[in-house]
Write a sequence for this structure.
């Protein structure tokens, strides 16, 4: 009980001391505020004395109003400086943005011009593709034309009145061009498949230039000519191709089998190759022969070299094409000069 009383007494003393110090602190604070208010409320007289004989101007105020006025002026000046700097930054950014905007407009104009060029090229491509499909007789040509006439095809792109302006029209043009290109994939793939299926036919038919590298020129055509030695008119049954020198490689113009390797007083060293579809090719005046009778050769295989054997006025190749028992003009078949890249 004694200890309990002792603790209660200490507690009361502590509360009393805290209350006493709180009252004293509050009193000091109130006195301080009163002193500050008193100082701020002190009257001041500001006199403006001109150098001339004008009257003196008196301003009566207090410390508080003077301090508030000074702070207000400092705040206004600071705000003016801050916003002035901000205005300079904004002007700089605006100038930069204006410059970038002009560059973007120039780029957009260039892009629009290129877009128009692409559209014109696509139009020409569409016309060429349609003509090619028509010539090849592909069934897809009807489908392609049908696709072209739909709302999302290239026809609508070129026939539509320009009622849309700006980027909306450019985006619409690109969408229609994309649709057109998408619709062109199928017919182009069909052309590829057809060419692939016809590859064997092309290689089985004599249709390339017989001199490797596509060199040489025709020195005498097929048909009626003056004989270079006798000077009389005769029927020349082939093409004479000259490179002005001996030793240039001669190629087989189609796949086939060598049926003759021989020498003739007129043709000199010559080779005859049998091809499919009843076609034969003959290569004459050869300096050397690189194949044997019975050998199978592929198009562009080297079968010999240009020479001057037999009745000849100079190094050249006499080239003939036979269909059955008929001799035909090789110029109708020799329409592509292919360089052998092997």
């Amino acid at each position: 009980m004694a200890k309990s009383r002792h603790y209660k007494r200490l507690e009361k003393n502590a509360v009393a001391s805290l209350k006493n110090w709180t009252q004293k602190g509050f009193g000091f604070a109130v006195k301080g505020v009163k002193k500050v208010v008193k100082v701020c409320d002190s009257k001041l007289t500001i006199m403006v004395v001109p150098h001339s004989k004008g009257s003196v101007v008196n301003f009566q105020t207090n410390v508080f109003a003077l301090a508030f006025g000074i702070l207000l002026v400092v705040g206004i000046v600071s705000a003016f400086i801050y916003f002035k700097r901000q205005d300079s930054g904004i002007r700089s950014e605006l100038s930069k943005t204006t410059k970038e905007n002009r560059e973007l407009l120039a780029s957009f104009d260039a892009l629009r011009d290129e877009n128009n060029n692409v559209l014109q090229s696509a139009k020409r491509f569409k016309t060429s593709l349609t003509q090619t499909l028509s010539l090849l007789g592909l069934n897809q040509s009807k489908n392609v034309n049908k696709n072209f006439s739909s709302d999302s095809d290239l026809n609508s792109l070129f026939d539509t009145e320009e009622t849309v302006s700006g980027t909306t029209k450019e985006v619409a043009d690109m969408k229609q061009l994309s649709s057109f290109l998408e619709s062109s994939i199928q017919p182009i793939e069909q052309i590829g498949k057809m060419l692939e299926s016809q590859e064997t036919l092309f290689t089985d038919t004599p249709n390339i230039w017989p001199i490797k590298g596509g060199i040489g020129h025709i020195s005498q055509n097929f048909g009626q000519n003056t004989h270079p030695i006798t000077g009389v008119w005769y029927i020349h049954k082939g093409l004479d191709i000259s490179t002005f020198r001996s030793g240039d490689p001669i190629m087989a113009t189609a796949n086939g089998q060598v049926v003759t390797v021989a020498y003739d007083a007129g043709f000199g060293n010559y080779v005859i190759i049998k091809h499919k579809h009843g076609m034969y090719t003959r290569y004459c005046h050869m300096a050397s022969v690189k194949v044997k009778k019975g050998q199978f050769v592929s198009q562009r295989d080297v079968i010999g070299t240009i020479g001057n054997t037999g009745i000849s006025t100079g190094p050249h190749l006499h080239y003939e094409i036979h269909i059955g028992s008929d001799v035909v003009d090789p110029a109708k078949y020799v329409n592509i000069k292919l360089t052998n890249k092997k």
